[in-house]
Design a protein that fits this description.
about 250 residues; alpha+beta; L-fuculose-1-phosphate Aldolase; seven-stranded mixed β-sheet; 7 helices; 7 strands; about 15% strand
Length: about 250
């Protein structure tokens, strides 16, 4: 019998086994759907900590419904290597090229969150104005796109531009489309998504009543180190896990 309340309780910032990586992939999908950061079009991937040259991603489905049966293993060419053969997200290749180019990245989120879409669709820069968002002190560049694209989806031919715009940073905006966030662990990725949205909301509301005040770069660097401490990540994980359990009692491993 499965104890639903034990799911995700054993906190490990960096998954060490395939099972743990798949479990965190499921939970991150559920958490970010519950928090309103992922909608029906968003997707998550987690690097395989055992092999390194494959990653886990759910088949094409609503992130809030993801279970173990939906998780596929994919190589860095974007091909399914697991025994299960299900429909992939069409933008799976963007995850593959990022994992290949950034060996320190272990988790990726592609999202069209309503709260940061205004920055995706304008030339307004996103910089930290709250201390939690200091993990984005290096800024977020925007990948420009040609207006005559054949599909709203990212195309393979655009991947070099995507990698250039992302650089060594934690996030990139894709013009008139969405955002991709990356991090060294699934749990840090959850924090990054939540804090970026919080910063976007604070920036917008601040601009309604005055001029937003950006955090000084040196102060932001100091705050970024504090935000990424393991104790902070653990609190965020447990907080989000409690919230998702209330709304998604079917969550299990």
């Amino acid at each position: 019998m499965i104890d639903h309340h034990s799911v995700g309780e054993e906190f490990n910032l960096y998954p060490k086994t395939e099972k743990e990586a798949m479990e965190q992939c499921i939970i991150v999908n559920r958490i970010l759907a519950n928090e309103g950061i992922l909608d029906v079009l968003g997707h998550i991937s987690v690097r395989n900590p055992v092999k390194g040259d494959t990653f886990f991603q759910a088949c094409r489905s609503f992130p809030g419904d993801v279970t173990r049966d939906d998780i596929l293993e994919i190589d860095l060419e974007g091909n399914i290597v697991s025994e299960k053969k299900k429909s992939l997200y069409r933008e799976v290749g963007s995850h593959a090229v990022i994992f290949a180019a950034r060996p320190e990245v272990n988790a990726i989120c592609h999202s069209h969150c309503d709260d940061w879409l205004p920055y995706v669709c304008t030339d307004t820069p996103m910089r930290p104005i709250i201390h939690e968002a200091c993990m984005f002190v290096e800024g977020i560049h925007t990948m420009k796109r040609e207006q005559d694209w054949e599909s709203c989806m990212l195309q393979k031919e655009e991947y070099p531009n995507l990698l250039e715009a992302l650089g060594n940073r934690r996030a990139v905006f894709i013009k008139n489309h969405g955002a991709i966030l990356v991090d060294d662990s699934p749990i840090h990725l959850v924090a990054a998504c939540i804090f970026l949205r919080k910063n976007a909301i604070a920036f917008y509301k601040s601009s309604l009543i005055g001029e937003p005040v950006y955090i000084d770069a040196e102060a932001a660097l100091r705050s970024a180190k504090e935000i990424l401490l393991e104790g902070v990540a653990e609190r965020i994980w447990k907080y989000c896990l409690q919230r998702v359990r209330r709304n998604m009692p079917d969550l299990y491993w």
